[in-house]
Amino acid sequence: MAHPLTHDDPRRLGAYVLVARLGSGGMGTVYLGRSPGGRTVALKTMHRRFAAQTEFRTRFRLEIDAARVIGGQYGAQVVDADPLAATPWFATEYVLGPPLDDAVALCGALPEPAVRALGAALCDALAQLHRSDVVHRDLKPSNILLTARGPKVIDFGIARAAGDDRLTRTGAAAGTPAYMSPEQAVGGEHTPAGDVFALAGVLVFAATGRPPFGTGQPADLLYRVRYAEPDLTGVPDGLRPALERCLAKDPERRPGTAELGALLHERAPDGAPGGIGDLVDHLPDALLADIARRSAAVWEIQPARLPVPDEESTTLTSLTSLSRRPRVTRRRLLTLGGGVLAAGGAAGAWGLLARGDDTADSGRKARPRRTPGGAPRLAWKATVGRNLAVGDATVLTVGDDLALVSEGELLCVDARTGRRRAESELVADAKTVLSDGERLFALDGSASKLRLVPVDLATGSFRASLAEFGDLDPLETRLVIAVGRSLVIEGKSRKGWVRIAVDSRTGEQRWRRSMPTPGDTVAGLVATPLGSSFLRTQGESASLIDARTGAARWSVRVPAKHANGLDAGRRHALSPDHVFLGSSELLALRLADGKTAWNFGKGRKFGENYDPEAQHYGPPVFKDDVVYTTERNNRLIALDARNGRLLWEEDKATASALFFAATSAVSGGYFYASPDNDAQWIAAIDLRTHRVAWTFQSPFGDQGGISPAIMAFPKAGRLIVVRGPAVCALPLDE
After folding, report:
1. Containing domain of residue 268, as a range?
2. pLDDT at 721 over 80
3. Whole-prediction pTM value?
């Protein structure tokens, strides 16, 4: 989607006048531009701070070379470039068509003939790359655009020559976890067989609407890619044997692109000789109409530029609002698409960078002004990471700043103003990044030894090593928590699982203890500080660990019906005496010994579709001897934290459906919840009247995220909201 240019965007790059923004992310920005002759192009740029680094400028030049190798038949034709400019850029045709993930979201899983035609064309595209000794290394649905003339592969930001390991990202396996090959997941060489593995994952997604290894946090996905079998439920029987071979853990067992292309052709269900036809012959009507709409829309976009922002500025608005187009024939679509392509146009945003646009206020002191509906005005917004399937961004507080982590990218911003401090691709995922409140730390697995390193918030780069661990597996080690000056690490060593505490100032190892093997390795682990101890939960287990010695003060196994309250995405709450878990009931465990103090919910009514086995209580929030939580099919309730007595319930007259699994917050006189509506991001419930006081509309359209989260940051006077890779901040009422 096109957005207006900001006040500080350049007016032109080379001979091209900039018309709009298509997207912006950690590394650069993609613009819509036009040549003096009226040709419409997409221009990708690199931020100047990265252009000053030889590694990033080299990577950018290699991306241009790879895009030229694949050419205009299977990719976006490169028409101009200046990789030596102060702000490096290159221009390509503006491709007509949506990315595959958007297409599946629009019309559902594709029919088998469409999946076969898509796969056969992508085999040809990859073969063209591989003949030039180039591997893509990040093939995924958002990097495949569907057009009237077939699919096009884009985003060669981490492509490189086969066997060339010089530009591997520091501290992370380059690529997208949901579509990585097992060898890529462990940082090994990514050969053409790795692209075949990713292609099979793309085809599973096209046929089912799901990645083959599910969704979740990157570490969980990498573990499944390495050890679990792919989920091929819903894949047509005729496609399953070929895709199973492509998803083999051993790259030697996978077919090449030529063999896979032949399999897709010869086993076509219609038995057509050689023949599955062109992709456009099998696309659903709704998708064809969307391509036609995009084809027409390219001519409607007019230049627009936002003024210098002030404290009243809120969100960017879309340049165009297009009505639904009537159904078109495939012949008409090809004619229309050909006409636009002849002029060099296209209407489909690149999947190169984070979708949407990142804006912040001007840095002036923000006042909690309100919109006519009563909601505070947006203070700032940003996005980090590019893949919605990976999960929601993690937000860590570091002094007066926020560290936003998603899909291997790190963005540091001023919590009050949203002003960017640093951006980098140096971190692997949220499980390897930790804040002690004042400094940010990361695990760097790129060297021969796993290193614990401070992160420079001004640049996003790693500083000198604080400690090293030669016996820990980088993929099965995580930073757990900071308690005082102790940074607690858990990982798999050669002799079994260990828990280690490192002094955050000196790097000295304070203690090291053996620990039981986690039931799900590093997945699902949550740690919450409590004085000089911390509560550790994982699976059905909860333990209170003394951070001074590493000894467990107690450990209990929570009954299965309550265990969901310990899930990583369901943040439990702590009072001085209890830990509260929201699941089939609201459960309170005594912190003294881990035993049940009280439970609430038995016998409550949850509507006509009540399922006694379902989770009925969302993540609880504690404040001032009151524990708050949301009930499935009901509303907000407030309980006495000491004994579980119901104090009050949200007023039914103004109650709105709430996102049951979202993490909420309490601050001042409001309970801040996530409505079960992607168009609304916050519902503020007045704790005195028990009614919804105001709601806040999404500044990012209908982007919903997996588990929305709201957090109060009183130090900066901000209410922080996270949905998917999108983060925004509002003034916080105290």
Report:
1. 100-281
2. yes
3. 0.55
